[in-house]
Design goal:
Strand content: 25-35%
CATH class of the largest domain: Alpha Beta
Number of strands: 15
Distance between the termini: 16 Å
Structural class: alpha/beta
Order of helices and strands: EEEHEEEEHEHEHEHEHEHEHHEHE
Helix content: 25-40%
Oligomer: single chain
Length: 329
């Protein structure tokens, strides 16, 4: 095997104009780490789209190999927890932002950032879940920890046709929840019903400025949108309910009032996938292997070639991607 491998590299010139190129690299050019992994599959997340298009300052080191998650096989390790041949998954930890990421045939990272690939799951399967699906499971776990059960009432999922949303709908419905899916892509209604959505509402019901308090419609929610959408979800959450917030597709702002919190005891649960402790990551991947229907997982994802990453990055930022995109390295 040649010592060189292909990588997607984003660079910036003195005038901060960004370029994206597929280049040849060697392992000597990789960043520090105690485990080297042959990357077998990765994915295109919303954050990856922002990094490659430059529409948000995701990248904080230049040049950068983007890609915030991967699955593959350990080729070299000086970390006591990993040996050559181990199958591993990585999500977050600044990979693709401050540390060379997944869009390359090799990655060198800290072994502390890795978790084992669940038994019975392929690298492709893991990236059909990806950071978006792993984040969706963190949201579900947070709602459960708050005490939200299927008997508590309906749960709403915003951005339901996106990466987080599709996995959240699938998991929640399998667990027995009555899922209300909010989407702006009504052409995806049948797809969302197949995933398990009991009701579908137009995102226009939530995306415009609303009242501080509204009619109680759901016991909980998974929000990947932010801004007015999250504010309206909170305003319509039932007494004692909770909303897990993990995204900002509409915006980083939260134009809400304290009314739902102090009049209905609603809780806003912040979900961070990047720096989540290892024990939480292990539990999330264990739950994914158990609670995400394999048949639905296949319908959630499509596979693209390495050379198609940049195009998919533009599409995901523009809201043209349904579900998950797996990159076959």
């Amino acid at each position: 095997m040649s010592d060189s491998f292909k990588a997607l590299l984003i660079s910036r010139d003195e005038e901060k104009r960004q370029s994206v190129d597929i280049v040849s690299m060697t392992e000597d050019e990789l960043m520090d780490g105690d485990v080297t992994v042959a990357v077998e599959a990765t994915t295109v997340n919303y954050k990856d789209g922002l990094a490659i298009t430059g529409k948000s300052p995701v990248v904080r080191r230049w040049p950068m190999i983007p890609g915030i998650d991967f699955a593959g096989t350990v080729t070299k390790s000086s970390n006591e927890n990993w040996k050559k041949g181990d199958k591993v998954v990585l999500n977050g930890w600044g990979v693709g932002e401050t540390h060379y990421g997944a869009y390359a045939e090799r990655a060198r990272v800290s072994g502390d950032w890795l978790v084992p690939l669940p038994d019975g799951m392929s690298a492709h399967d893991a990236m059909a879940v990806g950071t978006a699906g792993y984040t969706a499971m963190l949201c579900v776990m947070a709602l459960e920890n708050h005490g939200i059960t299927p008997d508590s009432g309906p749960v709403v999922v915003t951005g339901a046709a996106g990466g987080v949303g599709t996995v959240a709908v699938s998991i929640l419905s399998k667990l027995g929840y009555h899922v209300i899916a909010s989407t702006g892509r009504r052409s995806e209604d049948a797809f969302l019903k197949d995933l398990g959505a009991a009701e579908i509402i137009d995102r226009g019901e939530l995306s415009e400025p609303g009242r501080p308090m509204g009619k109680e419609r759901w016991a909980g929610g998974v929000d990947a949108v932010g801004s007015h959408t999250l504010a309206n979800v909170l305003a319509q959450t039932s007494y004692g309910g909770a909303v897990a917030a993990c995204g900002l597709a509409q915006g980083m702002d939260l134009p809400a009032s304290v009314a739902p919190f102090i009049l209905r005891g609603v809780c806003l649960l912040g979900i961070d996938s990047v720096m989540a402790p290892k024990e939480i990551r292990l539990e999330a991947w264990r739950r994914i292997a158990r609670d995400l229907d394999a048949g639905k997982l296949a319908s959630l994802s499509k596979t693209i070639a390495f050379e198609e990453i940049a195009g998919a990055a533009s599409d995901i930022v523009e809201g043209k991607i349904r579900g998950r995109v797996v990159v076959d390295i």
